[in-house]
Design a protein that fits this description.
about 325 residues, alpha/beta, TIM Barrel, nine-stranded mixed β-sheet, about 15% strand, globular
């Protein structure tokens, strides 16, 4: 999060459209924020997606196709091709990556107009990843999908959700992702909503327990010369890694969820999604920190959150200001999990 002229949060960024095409998915993740939407909400029809793309084009030239799992939608690539025809400059596919392991499908996606891939890998082994996705064989498919996308020169930005089950594996996961030659790596703290809220005790780790493993993973990625970020982790748990708080580069985003619309994802996080505790006002990072997802203190309270007294501008430094130019803007967090 960057500092504005008055010391508050600067949210002036390019607008991006997040289009949820439906909630059907070939994974059944323990941390899925969409919960039972796959059972209740029908996928969008192609004509509906085209209408949305036409209506939103005046606002933005960037669209993210997401879900659920967008690649299982039968009309996805037609919608992608339509977005390209309308002149969308950035067309990103947020995916679990499994269908990308099928070469002809990946080639068809590229021909249709996809120019960014954002796959999710949640463990360094099939044992860990497949347990989290509850989809045997998903680790191998996602890994091969990442390899295939990189072999075709695709821009690949990965997202890994931080949970109780994969905490100790984060450094090994970081090393694997580095070896796969992806361009940007993010570790997103699980949002306790949907399935993750129902399984809170089994899925959501404490920040104080997660931080050492997360920091080590970030260090591994950064040492390899790859951009690394953490999402939804308050600054009181990011000592020495302040420049890797991703909220500062999340674009202003309009989320076409179903049935709801989030007109401004930044405002949603600040006003509804996240929370501040009783001691946050006394923290020197209060003006730039969004706080945790509000469900976290509902489960664990505020005792872990220790106010900082150091200077945010000094902690962020030149690296904190300069990283925005070199990083790939992405939409992570709730839209991606």
């Amino acid at each position: 999060m960057t500092l504005g002229a008055a010391g508050g949060i600067d949210t002036a960024r390019a607008m991006r459209l997040d289009l949820k095409v439906g909630f059907t998915c070939n994974n059944l993740c323990t941390f899925c924020v969409q919960g039972d939407k796959r059972e209740r909400i029908e996928p969008r029809a192609l004509e509906e997606m085209k209408q949305i793309l036409r209506d939103e084009r005046a606002r933005t030239s960037e669209v993210v196709f997401t879900g659920g799992e967008p690649t299982v939608h039968k009309d996805l690539l037609q919608a992608v091709a339509y977005a390209r025809a309308l002149g969308y400059r950035v067309i990103q596919l947020q995916t679990n990556g499994r269908r990308l392991s099928h070469g002809p499908y990946l080639d068809a996606a590229v021909r249709a107009g996809v120019n960014q891939i954002s796959p999710s890998l949640h463990g360094s082994s099939a044992e860990i990843h497949d347990a989290l996705t509850r989809a045997p064989g998903s680790f191998g498919q996602t890994r091969r999908g990442i390899e295939a996308a990189r072999a075709r020169g695709m821009l690949v930005i990965t997202n890994s959700v931080v949970t109780r089950q994969n905490l100790e594996d984060l450094p090994a996961l970081a090393r694997l992702l580095v070896s796969l030659d992806v361009q940007q790596i993010q570790f997103a703290y699980v949002h306790p909503e949907g399935t993750a809220l129902r399984e809170f005790d089994a899925v959501v780790p404490r920040f104080s327990v997660a931080a050492p493993f997360l920091h080590e993973a970030l260090d591994i990625v950064q040492a390899a010369g790859i951009t690394a970020f953490a999402e939804a982790v308050p600054y009181c748990f990011m000592h020495g890694h302040e420049a890797q708080v991703v909220e500062s580069i999340i674009p202003d985003t309009r989320i076409l969820d179903k049935p709801m619309i989030i007109a401004d994802y930044t405002a949603y996080r600040l006003e509804q999604g996240k929370a501040k505790g009783p001691r946050c006002a006394g923290c020197s990072f209060d003006a730039v920190c969004e706080g945790p997802w509000r469900e976290y203190p509902d489960g664990y309270g505020w005792d872990e959150f220790v106010p900082r007294t150091d200077d945010p501008a000094e902690a962020l430094g030149v690296a904190g200001r300069g990283r925005e130019a070199s990083a790939v803007s992405d939409v992570f967090g709730e839209p991606h999990q």
